[in-house]
Write a structure and sequence with these properties.
It is built from 17 helices and 20 strands. It is an alpha/beta fold. Strands 1, 2, 11, 12, 13, 14 and 20 form a seven-stranded mixed beta sheet that branches. The protein has a seven-stranded mixed beta sheet with strand order 7-6-16-17-18-15-19, with helices on both faces. The chain has a two-stranded antiparallel sheet with strand order 3-4. Bound molecules: flavin-adenine dinucleotide.
C-alpha cells in the first residue's frame, strides 16, 4: 500500500469537503476521493446544455451554517449568496398567494384571503423563530448517546432539558406538537386559508415519503425554517453560479489549507484490519493507506458495499438494514427561450424571482401523496420552481433562462413499469402541471433534463434517490442517525467515521455533519 495520509475522505460532496477543510486546517494530511469528474455531490453546477448552467440537484441554500461560511472564509473563495425573495402560489381560481420577505406586504396579501390569517401569520412567524432558536444549537452538537451516558453526554442532555424548561409553556407545547404532528394538523391550528396551509405544508414533506397529513412532517417544516443567511431566519438564497459554487468555494478553502482532492477516483472498498479501518481500495485497484477514513456517503454504501456485512456487529448491521431511504423526489431542469407567463399574474415580474410553488390546495398535496403510496408518480405533483437566471444572469445566455423544478412525488419503487421507461412521461406530467397555470411554458422549452429517483441514485450515489441520504423522519434523527448508539460520527469499525448527510443533523446544504465529524476526529486523535 502506497502513500499514507492522516485522513482519507470518501466523497467530495459539500460535507466531505467541509470535513477535509477543517482537518487540513488542523494540520492533518488529508486526501479527498470523489467518484465523479466534478466536485459537489448533490450541490453541483453543470453545463447540461451548451450555455445553460444548472444547479442539477439542489438549487437553493439556506441551511449552510454561518460559522462555516465565516471560519472557512468562503466569500474570499468565491461564495456569494443572492437573495431569493418570496413564494408565489398560483391558484386554479385565477387568484394567487404571493408571500414575500417584506412583512407589511405579505400581511396585506394574506389579508386579501383572510384577516384572521394575516394576524396569525405574524404570531406564527415569531413562534417558529423561537422554535428554531431552541433547535438550532442542536445542529452543531454531537448527539449524546442515552444508552451509554458519559459525563459529557449527561451534561449535554441536562443542558437541553434546562433550555426546554426555560421556554414559555406555549413554546414547550409548540415544540412537542412540532415533534409529533402532521404539517397540516399543526398549521390548521393557526390558519384557515387552504392555499396558505397547502403551500406552507410543502416544506414538511421535502425529501420524505410522507404526505402533508402524515404525523412527523411538522418537524421537517421546522428543519426548513431554520435556514439562516446573515442572521435572518427563514431566508433562502441562490449561490451565484449555482450550488456548485458553494462546493467549489469549500474545495478552495480545503486546498488552501493543504488538502489534496482527486476526482474520478471511485472507491470500491474500505480496507480493514482487526476491526480498524486502514485505508481504501479504489475501483482502479490502487490501495491508499490512512490512519482515519471518513465516509461522506450513506450508510448502506459505506457499510454494506465498502466494508462488508461480515465485518459488522449483527445488531448494527440490522439497524443499517432498517435505515429508510425511500426516495420520493425528482427534478426537471428546463432551458427556456423566454419566461413562463402565469394566467393569474401575467407578464414578467418580481413574482418570478422567488420560489413558485405548485401547491394550490391541501387536497392537491395529499392526492399527490396518495399516488405515491400506491406506487406511482403523482399525476398532479407538488412542484417547487425557481428561475435562478433572473437573479444571476450568468447561468444562461442573454434573453434565455434556466428553470428548475423540484418534484414530489416520484417514488423510487414503481408498482408498474420502471423509471427508465417512465422518465419522459414523468417529465411530461411535470410540464403539464405547470401549464395548468402558465400555458405558454411548453412553447418556451428549448431543452429538458428529467431526473428520476433512479437517475439521482445513479448520478449522485444517493441510495434509492433519497435527497438527504436517508429520510429526515424523527426515528432517524439526532441520537438515532444513522443508527442507535452510533450517532456520534464513529462506527463499529475503529478509525472509520461518518461525515455526510446520513449523520446528525442530516441533509441539506448545511455543512454541519462535515464540521461536527471533523471535531470528533480531532478530539479522538488526542
Ligand atoms: C434533487 C435534489 C434537490 C435538493 N435540493 C436542495 C436544496 O434546494 N437545498 C438544500 O439545502 N438541499 C437540497 N438537497 C439536499 C442536499 O443537496 C444534500 O443533502 C447535500 O448536498 C448532501 O451533501 P453531502 O456532502 O452530505 O453528500 P453528497 O452530496 O451525497 O456527496 C457524497 C459524494 O460522494 C461521492 N461518492 C459516492 N460514492 C462514491 C465512491 N464509491 N467513491 C468516491 N466518492 C463517492 C458522490 O459522487 C458525492 O459527490 C437536494 C438534493 C437533491 C438530490
Amino acid at each position: 500500500m502506497v502513500q499514507t495520509y492522516d485522513v482519507i475522505v470518501i466523497g467530495g460532496g459539500h460535507n466531505g469537503l467541509v470535513h477535509a477543510a477543517y482537518l487540513a486546517r488542523a494540520g492533518k494530511k488529508v486526501l479527498v476521493l470523489e467518484r465523479r469528474h466534478v466536485l459537489g455531490g448533490a450541490a453541483v453546477t453543470e453545463e447540461v446544455f451548451p450555455g445553460f448552467q444548472f444547479s442539477v440537484a439542489s438549487y437553493v441554500v439556506s441551511l449552510l451554517r454561518p460559522e462555516i461560511i465565516r471560519e472557512l472564509d468562503l466569500p474570499r473563495h468565491g461564495l456569494e449568496i443572492l437573495p431569493l425573495d418570496g413564494t408565489f402560489t398560483p391558484m386554479p381560481s385565477g387568484d394567487y398567494l404571493w408571500r414575500v420577505n417584506d412583512h407589511a406586504k405579505t400581511r396585506r396579501e394574506i389579508q386579501r384571503h383572510s384577516r384572521v390569517d394575516a394576524e396569525a401569520y405574524e404570531e406564527y412567524g415569531k413562534a417558529m423563530v423561537d422554535m428554531g432558536r431552541f433547535v438550532k444549537p442542536i445542529l452543531s452538537l454531537t448527539p449524546p448517546d442515552p444508552t451509554r451516558l458519559d459525563w459529557k453526554g449527561l451534561f449535554e442532555l441536562l443542558r437541553l432539558g434546562r433550555r426546554f424548561q426555560k421556554l414559555s409553556w406555549q413554546d414547550q407545547y409548540n415544540q412537542v406538537q412540532l415533534m409529533t404532528m402532521s404539517a397540516v394538523d399543526f398549521l390548521d391550528q393557526w390558519f384557515e386559508t387552504d392555499v396558505l396551509k397547502a403551500t406552507m405544508s410543502a416544506s414538511g414533506i421535502i425529501g420524505t415519503f410522507l404526505g402533508v397529513r402524515s404525523p412527523g412532517t411538522a418537524y421537517v417544516l421546522l428543519h426548513h425554517y431554520m435556514g439562516e443567511i446573515d442572521g435572518a431566519f427563514r431566508s433562502w438564497g441562490f449561490a451565484r453560479g449555482g450550488t456548485g459554487a458553494i462546493s467549489n468555494a469549500i474545495a478552495e478553502a480545503a486546498r488552501e489549507a493543504g488538502a489534496e482532492i482527486r476526482t474520478e477516483s471511485p472507491i470500491a472498498r474500505i480496507l480493514t484490519k482487526n476491526g480498524r479501518a486502514t485505508g481504501v481500495a479504489l475501483e482502479s485497484g490502487e490501495e491508499i493507506g490512512a490512519s482515519v477514513v471518513s465516509s461522506s456517503v450513506d450508510p448502506r454504501l459505506t457499510f454494506f458495499r465498502m466494508v462488508g456485512r461480515k465485518e459488522l456487529p449483527e445488531e448494527f448491521a440490522e439497524d443499517i438494514e432498517r435505515y429508510k431511504f425511500r426516495g420520493s423526489s425528482g427534478k426537471v431542469n428546463l432551458a427556456l427561450d423566454g419566461l413562463p407567463d402565469f394566467t393569474c399574474l401575467p407578464g414578467p415580474g418580481a413574482h418570478l424571482r422567488g420560489a413558485i410553488s405548485i401547491s394550490p390546495s391541501v387536497e392537491y398535496m395529499e392526492r399527490a401523496y396518495d399516488d405515491a403510496k400506491y406506487g406511482r408518480y403523482s399525476r398532479r405533483p407538488y412542484i417547487d420552481i425557481v428561475i435562478p437566471s433572473l437573479t444571476d444572469p450568468s447561468v444562461a445566455p442573454p434573453g434565455k433562462h434556466v428553470l428548475s423544478c423540484f418534484v414530489q412525488y416520484a417514488p423510487y419503487h414503481l408498482k408498474n413499469g420502471d423509471w427508465d421507461k417512465e422518465r419522459e412521461a414523468f417529465g411530461d406530467t411535470v410540464v403539464a402541471a405547470i401549464a395548468e397555470f402558465a400555458p405558454n411554458i411548453r412553447d418556451r422549452i428549448l431543452h429538458r433534463q428529467v431526473l428520476t429517483p433512479l437517475d439521482i441514485e445513479r448520478t449522485f450515489g444517493l441510495t434509492e434517490g433519497n435527497i438527504f441520504q436517508g429520510e429526515l423522519t424523527l426515528e432517524q434523527l439526532f441520537f438515532l442517525r444513522p443508527a442507535p448508539g452510533w450517532a456520534q460520527y464513529t462506527t463499529p469499525i475503529r478509525s472509520l467515521y461518518m461525515c455526510g448527510s446520513a449523520a446528525h443533523p442530516g441533509g441539506g446544504i448545511m455543512g454541519a455533519p462535515g464540521k461536527n465529524a471533523a471535531m470528533k476526529v480531532l478530539h479522538d486523535w488526542k
